[in-house]
Amino acid sequence: MTQVLHLEPLTQEVFAPFGDVLEVAGDPDKIINQGLCGRYHDRAQIDIVDGTAGISLFKAEPRQFPITLDMVERHPEGSQAFLPMSFDPFIVVVAPGAADQPGQPRAFITAPGQGINFARGTWHGVLTPIHAPGLFAVVDRIGEGPNLQEHWFDTPFIISDA
Question: Exposure check for the chain: N or C terminus, fewer CB within 10 A?
Answer without folding.
Answer: N
